[in-house]
Design goal:
The complex is a heterodimer of chains A (about 150) and B (about 500).
Chain A (H helix, E strand, L loop, with lengths): L2 H25 L7 H27 L8 H22 L8 H34 L4 H15 L1
Chain B lengths: L7 E2 L14 E3 L7 E2 L16 H8 L2 H14 L5 H24 L3 H8 L1 H15 L5 H12 L3 H18 L3 H27 L2 H10 L16 H9 L7 H11 L35 H43 L2 H8 L2 H15 L2 H37 L8 H22 L9 H25 L9 H25 L5
Antiparallel strand pairs in B: 1-2, 2-3
Classes of the chains: A mainly alpha (about 150), B mainly alpha (about 500).
């Protein structure tokens, strides 16, 4: 498996993570703040969510996750989402107002909802992406076969 | 009536989709017996794609995004125990609706007709009376107007035409709609989670969740003519309301769940010619065969996962998120509480969006309104399809001569009928329905929920073979559901003289 093949498997998850992160980043724009600060805020969340989203796709390709299985993905995002949010809060210089433990606990709870939305979208996008890439990317072909087997069961 | 014996031999003539003379059948009610066929293998129980997306699209609406956050702001988070009961009840109703649809491939409407045909015609009439009015478009389109400045009637009319064209061109309507709704719901869930993560706090979510367990809490103000009907309405809107659960049986069938695999799928008008002959009744599997019963248990696991995680979980998540957003909005601007108490829905939603904007940025307010518009779009897509599907199913099976047409033709007729009527009403009439019958429509919508609980009890306990009938405790819950909906409705009517707020 070449780096390019792995990255191609990461693309759908990374796109969903980046999209969600950019939206969330936009929300942190404070009225009157310079564009640079707002951009940093968006980037500070979009980048970690994209990384974790992409990593999910690669782990799926390695068989660590099963297509459509929610439990493991829920746990994955319960760790990844709070870390991403904490990174954003620290990078933008605000820091959690209620203290780190309460902040992380709250974010972990919300992460379960994030995980449902993420998997729901990922399961829609990934098979279509794999169909496009299967001929040129053996790992994508193998993962597509897993999806097909899964659908036939 | 032979509903509890093992599948018996029948003497129906052979033909397209007809049982042969010596074929085993299941007799249920006075309608045509159901031939015995193989139950397909169940998919893995842990899955994320399926017909529940329709129920979520229909169910996550104004109740979750507006009514319950509003009640929390007015009466405190403890009022949410009623929401917990409402949604949990709906999850059990969903499982029981699925029981009949997956065991037979028939809709619950046909099940009702097997028990007592006028019962089915009652639901046919309620659907026409309640769901032909395009009022449900207004909240989403009004939110879109707030964002873009485009008048809401223009958006609503364009939306109606778009829905008609897309559903008419689709090869298999179910597939198109499941794909579109999955993307929309996924975006909604992802987005609300992110917004709640940005504006809420541990304290908000703890208040919201602990409030769900304050069983019996009803402040004196809630027990008044002004607010009790509003609470009844909010309970009816916790999760799917009106006839939405009944329509879910049609989506389940078209998704090929259980014995639905033996029923052809509805096609768009353009591809109606490719539709296979629709059988006039469903099918039953051999409940005496242990291998078939093992597959049945697999299907029950599959739908239980849908009911618990997807339906219950997503509905809870969206409501908790919107409640947290509303709490944050009031923290920023306490005047919002008064606006929400006094003004109408559109004004209150705008006030919430403004307060959310001031909590973060104008972008946040726009995204909040965007979610309201998205919820409106989901509901519209789901409602138009469901209404047409349900009415076409009843017409095809029970109106003499209707079988000369294809199911796709009837579906298109109801779809375009409701679209044309909707456009005329949007342009020239009252969108919610004539003011003189508004109370009657609200009453019928909630009454239908109590009525389908009773229907479910009758259908599942009398029309299914004994091994797959519901357990006693499920019957108790569904019976309690009938008492919950009908009791609150009638109490509101007789104690306060008001139907539903």
């Amino acid at each position: 498996m070449t780096a390019r093949h792995r990255l191609e498997l990461a693309l759908p998850g990374a796109s969903i993570g980046a999209g969600a992160g950019a939206m969330a980043g936009g929300l942190t724009l404070l009225a009157g703040q310079p564009t640079g600060v707002a951009g940093l805020s968006a980037l500070a969340l979009a980048v970690p969510l994209a990384l974790f989203g992409g990593m999910y796709g690669m782990l799926l390709g390695r068989g660590v996750f099963r297509p459509g299985a929610f439990g493991p993905v829920g746990l994955y995002w319960m760790a990844a989402f709070p870390m991403s949010r904490l990174a954003q809060e620290l990078l933008t210089g605000q820091g959690p107002a209620d203290g780190v433990p309460a902040f992380l606990a709250y974010q972990a709870m919300v992460a379960l909802g994030f995980a449902i939305g993420f998997v729901w979208l990922h399961e829609r996008l990934m098979p279509r992406w794999l169909i496009r890439r299967a001929t040129a990317n053996p790992p994508a072909a193998a993962l597509l076969e897993t999806y097909v087997r899964h659908a036939r069961r | 009536m032979d509903t509890s014996k093992p599948p018996a031999a029948a003497t129906a003539p052979p033909g397209a989709g007809q049982p042969s003379t010596d074929e085993r059948v299941w007799k249920a009610g006075r309608l045509e017996p159901m031939p015995i066929r193989k139950l397909p293998d169940a998919p893995p129980s842990v899955h994320l794609l399926g017909p529940t997306v329709f129920l979520v699209a229909l169910g996550v609406g104004m109740g979750e995004s507006y009514m319950w956050p509003r009640l929390v702001l007015l009466f405190g988070p403890e009022i949410r125990w009623l929401f917990l009961i409402g949604v949990t009840l709906q999850a059990v109703v969903m499982l029981e609706m699925a029981r009949y649809a997956m065991a037979t491939g028939e809709s619950i409407f046909t099940g009702a007709a097997r028990v007592f045909k006028p019962l089915m015609w009652f639901f046919f009439a309620v659907a026409v009376l309640v769901y032909i009015w395009p009022g449900h478009l207004s909240a989403g389109a009004a939110a879109f107007e707030e964002i873009t400045g485009i008048p809401w009637t223009v958006t609503a009319v364009a939306g109606l035409i778009l829905v008609g064209v897309v559903f008419s061109l689709a090869k298999v309507i179910y597939n198109v709609l499941e794909n579109v709704l999955s993307l929309l719901i996924g975006t909604l869930v992802l987005g609300t989670a992110v917004v709640a993560a940005m504006v809420g706090s541990w304290g908000d979510v703890v208040d919201t969740i602990t409030g769900m367990f304050a069983f019996g809490y009803l402040p004196p103000e809630a027990m008044s003519a002004a607010w009790f009907p509003v609470i009844v309405g909010a309970c009816a809107f916790a999760g799917p309301s009106g006839m939405q659960q009944m329509w879910y049986t049609l989506h389940l069938r078209d998704s090929g769940a259980g014995m639905g695999v033996h029923i052809p799928r509805i096609r768009g008008l353009r591809h109606a010619g490719e539709e296979e002959a629709m059988p006039s009744r469903g099918f039953m599997f051999d409940t005496d065969d242990p291998a078939e019963m093992a597959k049945w248990k697999g299907w029950r696991r599959w739908v239980t996962f849908d009911a618990l995680l997807l339906f219950w979980g997503v509905t809870m998540l969206v409501t908790i998120s919107f409640t947290v957003i509303a709490q944050a909005a009031v923290r920023q601007n306490p005047a919002v509480r008064e606006v929400i108490r006094n003004e109408d829905r559109e004004v209150a939603l705008t006030a919430m969006a403004d307060a959310v904007s001031s909590a973060g940025s104008s972008v946040l307010g726009v995204i909040f309104l965007g979610f309201i518009a998205l919820i409106g779009l989901n509901a519209t897509l789901g409602l138009f399809d469901s209404f047409s599907r349900g009415q076409a199913d009843m017409t095809y099976n029970f109106v003499p001569g209707a079988k000369k047409l294809k199911m796709s033709h009837l579906y298109a007729a109801f779809l375009w009928g409701v679209i044309v009527f909707g456009i005329l009403i949007l342009l020239f009439g009252p969108a919610d329905g004539p003011s003189g019958i508004l109370d009657t429509l609200a009453f019928l919508s909630t009454f239908a929920m109590g009525a389908y609980c009773v229907t479910l009890l009758l259908v599942n306990n009398r029309m299914l073979p004994k091994p797959i009938r519901p357990r006693w405790w499920t019957n108790v819950i569904i019976g309690a559901g009938a008492v919950f909906y009908l009791g609150m409705l009638l109490y509101s009517l007789f104690a306060y003289g008001v139907v539903v707020g």
